[in-house]
Amino acid sequence: MRVTEGLREAFDTVRHNKLRTALTILSIVIGVASVIAVMAIGIMGRRAIMGDLAALGGALYWIESQDGGSDDGRRDQHLRIEHLEAISALVGDTSWVSPTLRGDTELRFHGRQAPAALFGVGAEYAELWPLPVQAGRFLEPQEVRQRRKVIVLGDRVAHALFDGPERAVGSVVGAGGLQLQVVGVMAADFRAAGDGSDDRTCYLPHGLYRSIYRWDPAVGPHVPAITLRARDSARLGESMALVQQFLDRVLPGSPSVRPFVVATDQARLETEAEVLRVITLIVTLVAGISLLVGGLGIMNIMLVSVSERTVEIGLRKAVGARDGDILGQFLIESMVICLLGGVCGVVLGFGGTLAVALALGWNLILPEVAAVGLGVAVATGLFFGVYPAAKAARLPPVVALSRN
To answer: Residue 206, exposed/middle/buried by CB under 10 A (0-12, 13-18, 19+)?
Structure first.
């Protein structure tokens, strides 16, 4: 039996049984759409996570407390400004360094007020994270060294106080007892990969912020967090080792616990990507259950078709059709039905994937998973169509013709 003839007959059958075919392929549509959407979203999510890692060169690291030193009231178990300066000098050729002090406040301008998250940072903070500025500029090294009263506003704060970023630059806003000149405004919808910033975040020199921050009297001024980024990712291990040796020397702990350790973001991001991969696999398998249900529906409808067309099968065999011709005819019909469901499923899956990609700002990934979806649909038709087709092929002509 020629394939073209089998396809023609399959489409004729589909055309003459539109409602039954539509109901049959519905579960195939849902199954293929689910598999495509889940696979594509999983792949896009993993690539987004690994993209964050690549954007940082895989070279971001920081100092974190191991024994709760920032809460035990001991003055010798905290990072001080002298430690920050020593670390900056130690890794100056290999890494960018910035402290981060965080707190909430309200900024004021001519009777207007806006809540803001203040980040006291160094000038090299812009090298640690991608910091897009839509108006003005970020903090400069001289401003940080001299503790100048300057600030970079978040987009939401700029709109609340000035109705836009262009009017903000050059103006002076109030923060507590300080008057701060606005030198820049961050881009809208800005999120650094992991520093906790949002459109309310505003940046000012850490030395200035340290002078107005309300410190615990038992602890005194200190540096809550220090983040670093290796200039060359190949030297990440070397830089981390230098900082750890310095911490072990100036802030020694007990034989079993270091007060401070150097950690990196690479392992966390790779773990997140692996977890997402496993979750995607599990959800894809669950979504594949609907394909199994659809396959059983295909088998059922093909068995009904064989029963309805028993006399036709007998006539075909009586005029010379071989078992292989009958088998091929019903297999092609089964695969055509699944292929139609697969195409509709690809369209539906593409719509869901596109919506997620646009909502989260991910790069759209579809061709490879669409091919997988269509392949699975055809394979489903082939697998679940074998038994009905084989049953039709085995019918003796005399028995088939004798049935009414």
So the answer is: buried
Name the token pair of 272: 């997140």
Q: Cα–Cα distance between 125 and 225 in angstroms, integer?
A: 12
Residue 267: the pLDDT is: 66
AA identity, residue 309 = R
Per DSSP, the residues of 354-382 read HHHHHHHTPPP--HHHHHHHHHHHHHHHH
What's the predicted TM-score (pTM) here? 0.58
Query: What pairs with residue 181 in β-bridges?
Result: 150, 172
Percent of the chain with pLDDT over 90: 22
State how far the alpha carbon of 28 is from the alpha carbons of 24, 286, 373, 386, 387, in Å. 8, 14, 10, 17, 19
Residue 220 Ramachandran class (φ > 0 left, ψ -120 to 50 alpha, else beta): left
Helix (H, G, I), strand (E, B) or coil at 151: strand
Identify the burial level of 133 via C-beta atoms within 10 angstroms of its C-beta, where 0-12 means exposed, 13-18 middle and 19 or more buried.
Answer: middle
